Amino acid sequence: MPLPDERGYFGSFGGRYVPETLMPALEELTAAYQEARRDPSFWQELEYYLQQYVGRPSPLYFARRLSEYCRGARIYLKREDLNHTGAHKINNTIGQILLARRMGKKRIIAETGAGQHGVATATAAALFGMECAVYMGEEDMARQALNVFRMRILGATVVGVTAGSRTLKDAMNEAMRDWVTNVDTTYYLIGSVAGPHPYPVMVRDFQRVIGVETRRQVQEQTGRLPDVIVACVGGGSNAMGIFHPFLEDREVKLVGVEAAGCGLETGKHAATLNRGRPGILHGSKSYVLQDEDGQINLAHSISAGLDYPGVGPEHSYLKETGRVVYTAVTDGEALEAFQLLCRTEGIIPALESAHALAQAVRMAGEMPQDAIIVVNLSGRGDKDVQTVARALGGEG
């Protein structure tokens, strides 16, 4: 049976755990998406914008010097960092903006951690002339000041969130409150494969283009499928986008990489699938970082985009079925990978993507030279250079 089921469950994960006031809005959204999903003109319009505005297909690039450094498998990079706005996030925001317009909504709200989803949402809202408000924790606003400025230039209102840890989790709480209050006029544009049904399946569908292109490109360049695909996992949208078209190819190993922060044993990490347990967060059942009483624990990562105590429900299902292996990389290992890609390939990766790179480098040296690893380079690192400078003791 295709997943999720009609109630939005991937096995025992997913569903809708929201206030009663939001149920009509979710039913309306589900009906609108199901109608759009069956309408070829919807996908034709999305394809037009992905090609002519976003710049798809993104390249699949053979990282020769990085591969030589590893002395093992050949490493290919899926260059989502070359999309307009600099990350994979734009694939989903264009899809959801088209849906919001179809539903007659005039106001868009979103939440963001690293700012890439916020910038992508502000961009799409500007493109279609919609009012836009983006919720962002003040901790993340300080870490990602450049992206805050970009959102404001694009005409969005950035709403600073001072509650809790002042990061993505709290921004999502505030966006949910806004939606409850303004549900008749407002479309909530969630940026990851998280949240209540139908968001996990809808975002996955809009991000599948990454894996569909990768599948075609790797076969064109190498004549076969890759041995391993690696992607970072916070909420998990870039990983689900590249993994999903390969789920039935059992010979392709799929590896998701979470943020181990200061180390899994320190408690200062964001490794939800490695150290969490099933619970409810932001409207769905999935793995969650929580204490013995079920209270949500604070997450930690040097990467604002991975600094989230939850994960999309389909990832929890794929963990429990064993189809995807989930591992973790520390802040220090991600920083090393960040610098390594800069110096070997002249590419500055997002710190999120650097986690996936670190795992690929770990694996490549232990694999034969005819093996193929694909890394989803989910975003570019301009936004992170000050964070990296501070971490390395330079100017920030």
UniProtKB/TrEMBL annotation:
The Enzyme Commission number assigned here is: 4.2.1.20
Which cofactor(s) are needed, names only? pyridoxal 5'-phosphate
Q: Which Pfam families match?
A: PALP
- Does the keyword Amino-acid biosynthesis belong to this entry? yes
Keywords, A to Z? Answer: Amino-acid biosynthesis, Aromatic amino acid biosynthesis, Lyase, Pyridoxal phosphate, Tryptophan biosynthesis
Single GO term (MF): tryptophan synthase activity
Q: In which pathway does it act?
A: Amino-acid biosynthesis; L-tryptophan biosynthesis; L-tryptophan from chorismate: step 5/5
State the reactions this protein catalyses: (1S,2R)-1-C-(indol-3-yl)glycerol 3-phosphate + L-serine = D-glyceraldehyde 3-phosphate + L-tryptophan + H2O
Where do the Tryptophan synthase beta chain-like PALP domain residues begin and end? 55-379
N6-(pyridoxal phosphate)lysine is carried by which residues? K89
Q: Could you give the subunit structure recorded for this chain? A: Tetramer of two alpha and two beta chains.
Q: Enumerate the HAMAP family for this protein.
A: Trp_synth_beta (MF_00133)
**Briefly, what is this protein's role?**
The beta subunit is responsible for the synthesis of L-tryptophan from indole and L-serine.
The record's section on NCBIfam families has:
trpB
Q: Which protein family is named in the record?
A: Belongs to the TrpB family.
Q: Mind telling me what this protein is named? A: Tryptophan synthase beta chain
Query: What gene is behind this protein?
Result: trpB
